[in-house]
Design goal:
There is one protein chain. The protein is built from ten helices and twelve strands. The chain is α+β, with helices and mostly antiparallel strands.
């Protein structure tokens, strides 16, 4: 049966289109697949589940969850590369789908990746994690119908765009803000249930901004227009809707300050999910490197964190037999 290597990309969110639901659907999420960071795992069948390396516990949880759901044998392996969970990069979904894909490659298990994600509670609101794994690129999903149980199926893919090869995402995860965001995520269902319906005019404005500015900028590769629309879309959501729960446009004061720096360096910025991950897009590798140097100096004086300079990923996950 051998071994299998699964390399899964991270992704970042831009925000949700419609939290009002008057047209019969809720949410709808836009986001981007990243070439880095990645969850890279080597897996093989064995007598008792044992995973080593960074985020080993997360991958073991995914193995045991899928074993319980599908009656599968244990897996052993090693995580070669990983990235933090609970910071808006999609680590948990990447782990679940990596293990499911590993079972399929090793044992011809025939697991439907959609079913695997839903079985372990992934892609129930946003499908970015699922489509970044299976498709890559810039992605827009269609949310789910009002009145249906969340998670009965994965939101449909409405649009996908190739990300230009010369663009570089600058992705920043400030370490000092991570505990605050994880505390919010532990109460995520409670927080979402307590949020009021989005005003109709806001949902209409976001939808128009997405359809008539952000998506055309993606289709035409117009980075300046994209950053302008992305900042307005993401910042407007934070400022006008989520601020009651995150106490500002972004998740916390440190991230608010970082957002100002990224706007100065690149002309736009967005927070991924609850944060604390912020990102922007630069027109070339050299421009991204220069901006990253300034961000690292800023970050090092405020508790440190992770900085990624990466192209977009237009392929999705890679599965290789070893």
């Amino acid at each position: 049966m051998g071994r299998v290597l699964v390399s899964a990309p991270a992704h970042v969110h831009a925000g949700n289109i419609d939290l009002e639901g008057g047209l019969g659907r809720l949410y709808g999420t836009l986001g981007f697949t990243l070439s880095q960071p990645r969850l890279v795992t080597v897996l093989e069948p064995c007598s008792s589940t044992r995973i080593e390396g960074p985020q080993a516990g997360l991958v073991e949880w995914a193995v045991e969850g899928l074993r319980s759901e599908y009656g599968l044998p244990p897996l052993c392996g090693r995580v070669l590369q990983a990235f933090p969970r609970g910071v808006g990069l999609g680590a948990t979904t990447a782990a679940v789908l990596s293990v499911a894909a590993g079972y399929n490659a090793l044992l011809s298990a025939g697991i439907d990746l959609r079913d695997a994600a839903l079985a372990l509670g992934r892609s129930t609101v946003s499908a970015l994690g699922f489509y970044s794994f299976t498709r890559g690129g810039a992605l827009l999903d269609g949310g789910f119908p009002v009145g249906t149980e969340r998670g009965y199926r994965i939101p449909p893919l409405l649009a996908r765009y190739e990300l230009p090869g010369e663009w570089r995402f600058l992705v920043v995860v400030p370490a000092a803000a991570v505990p605050h965001v994880r505390e919010v995520k532990e109460r995520e269902d409670e927080v979402l249930a307590s949020m009021p319906s989005m005003p109709v005019r806001m949902a209409e404005r976001l939808s128009r901004l997405l359809l008539m500015k952000l998506l055309p900028a993606l289709a035409e590769g117009d980075l300046e227009a994209l950053l302008e629309a992305l900042t307005e879309f993401n910042g407007g959501l934070g400022r006008e809707y989520w601020s009651a729960r995150q106490h500002g446009t972004y998740c916390c004061p440190l991230v608010e300050e970082l957002a100002g720096l990224l706007r100065t360096l690149a002309g736009g910025v967005a927070q991924s999910s609850w944060g604390p991950t912020l990102y922007t897009i630069l027109p070339s590798p050299s421009a991204a490197r220069r901006a990253a140097e300034k961000v690292r100096r800023w970050l090092n004086s405020r508790g440190g964190g992770a900085v990624y300079v990466t192209p977009g990923d237009n392929r999705g996950a890679v599965v290789e037999r070893l």
